[in-house]
Design a protein that fits this description.
single chain; 224 residues; mainly alpha; 9 helices; 75% helix; globular
């Protein structure tokens, strides 16, 4: 299976599980909930990748040169080539396989091949510390199993830190002048575009979380 297809299916399954449960319990859908369901599913996958970033950090540092040479030889985009790589089902969760995602991304931002950088450290932190609270909040938004006040407080904490650390990542990238090493197209796609998912979803989640606290119920997510 193509590794990119596996990633899409993983996100689709987790998103569908939340939406399906929500429809079964409440009988309706809500735009805010649907968008956040998609975001939680993306973040859970990325959290695993970020754990792989830590587990295979030595391997990633070695593989960057391979992908640089590969791009020079073939002219192909490393990220696209990696996502269209086929892997057997037994290796689709291999940390070594997903370490190559970071090796290819390091072509655009080499901080992920340098364990001393902000980007490297903050992504590892997200990978190990946000999966559990993300699952709790995803479940709360889906089933309203906890008081809205508590869900709102947890949401403010989580979404604010995603906005903050992602924004600081952008700052660190431009202050270190890494944009001068890549094309504008790559910068817009892989740096601004990819990170914007966490900033924009974080803003939406922060709004929803504040409403949960102020309203004291799940009306903002479509619960009647």
């Amino acid at each position: 299976m193509w590794v990119g297809l596996f990633a899409v299916l993983f996100i689709a399954v987790f998103t569908a599980a939340g939406i399906g449960t929500r429809l079964w319990l409440n009988g309706n859908l809500n735009t805010c909930y649907s968008l956040l369901s998609l975001f939680f599913s993306i973040n859970l996958l990325i959290c695993y990748w970020e754990a792989c970033l830590y587990w295979r950090r030595d391997y990633i540092e070695e593989r960057v040169n391979y992908w640089r040479e590969r791009r020079m030889q073939t002219g192909r985009t490393p990220a696209v080539e990696f996502l269209t790589t086929k892997a057997p089902f037994g290796k689709l969760l291999s940390p070594t396989l997903w370490a190559d995602a970071w090796a290819t991304y390091s072509i655009y931002d080499d901080s992920y091949a340098d364990r001393r950088t902000y980007g490297f450290s903050i992504d590892i932190a997200n990978g190990f510390f946000t999966p559990l609270p993300s699952l709790v909040l995803y479940a709360a938004f889906t089933t309203a199993f906890m008081p809205a006040l508590y869900a709102g407080i947890l949401g403010v904490i989580l979404f604010w830190q995603w906005i903050y650390v992602s924004s600081v990542y952008w700052v660190s990238f431009f202050v270190s002048r890494r944009q001068e090493l890549i094309s504008k197209v790559d910068m817009y796609i892989y740096i601004l575009g990819a990170t914007a998912v966490w900033v924009l979803s974080g803003l939406l989640g922060l709004y929803v979380s504040i409403r949960l606290i102020i309203d004291g119920d799940y009306t903002v997510l479509g619960y009647l």
